Structure formats: C-alpha cells, structure tokens
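To the wet lab folks,

You asked to see what we're planning to order before we commit. Fair enough. Below is the target structure as tokens, and below that is the sequence we designed to fit it. If anything looks off to you, flag it before the synthesis order goes out.
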C-alpha cells in the first residue's frame, strides 16, 4: 500500500500541494517505506489553534480521499484528477472540524484557496 499512498506520481502531486506550506527537505515522500513512518514524521506547524488541528488531520483526509478515488476508479470507472482529490480531502477536513468552536471564524474558501495562509494565521 505504500506505493499507492506515497510513491506514485498521481498521489505525489496531491501531497506536494498539501505539504507546500511546510515542506522540508527531510519530508520527501520517497524517504518513507510505509504510511506509518510518514505519519510519524508529519511536521508540527506553528499557527492558530484551529489551523494546527486541521493540519494534524490533513494526512488522514488525504489518505481517505486517495483510497476513495482509487475505489471509484476501479469499481465505478470514475476517474478524478489530483486537484479533485485534493479538494475532496479539504472538504473532509472541513466537515471533520464541524464541531470545533473555531471553525465559525473561518470559511471553507480559506481552506481551498489560501491553504498556506490558513495554516499560519495567528
């Protein structure tokens, strides 16, 4: 499963966009043999409380979106591009944070269009 979630070109484009605000040389997808190792190395951002919580959930939303896209492709013949899968991951993040008291201070658009700024707001 490591290849599906970390090493194929398609998912690499998704991870690049998600990781762009906090990318470091040490967090290269090819440095990890397993998803577990990747998750253990997930960086800890500075920023507002809500942004930090969203960031902690981000890898799980991406993994879930990749898995769903794979299954939709195999079982339903529905093909999505990397941007569509990324947007789906962002939608999951937004929905998963529905009960967070700080969500009302933000808009889903921020998550989609200002990902880096959203994570670093103070």
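Sequence we intend to order:
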């Amino acid at each position: 499963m490591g290849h599906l979630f970390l090493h194929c070109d398609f998912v690499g484009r998704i991870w690049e966009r998600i990781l762009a605000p906090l990318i470091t040389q040490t967090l290269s997808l090819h440095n990890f043999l397993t998803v577990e190792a990747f998750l253990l190395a997930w960086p800890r951002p500075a920023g507002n409380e809500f942004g930090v919580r969203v960031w902690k959930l981000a890898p799980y939303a991406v993994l879930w979106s990749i898995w769903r896209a794979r299954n939709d492709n195999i079982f339903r013949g529905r093909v999505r591009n990397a941007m569509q899968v990324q947007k789906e991951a962002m939608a999951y993040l937004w929905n998963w944070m529905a009960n967070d008291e700080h969500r009302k201070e933000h808009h889903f658009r921020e998550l989609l269009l200002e990902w880096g700024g959203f994570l670093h707001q103070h």
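Structural context that might help your review: Residues 32 and 75 are 29 Å apart (CA to CA). The radius of gyration is 14 Å.

Thanks,
Computational group
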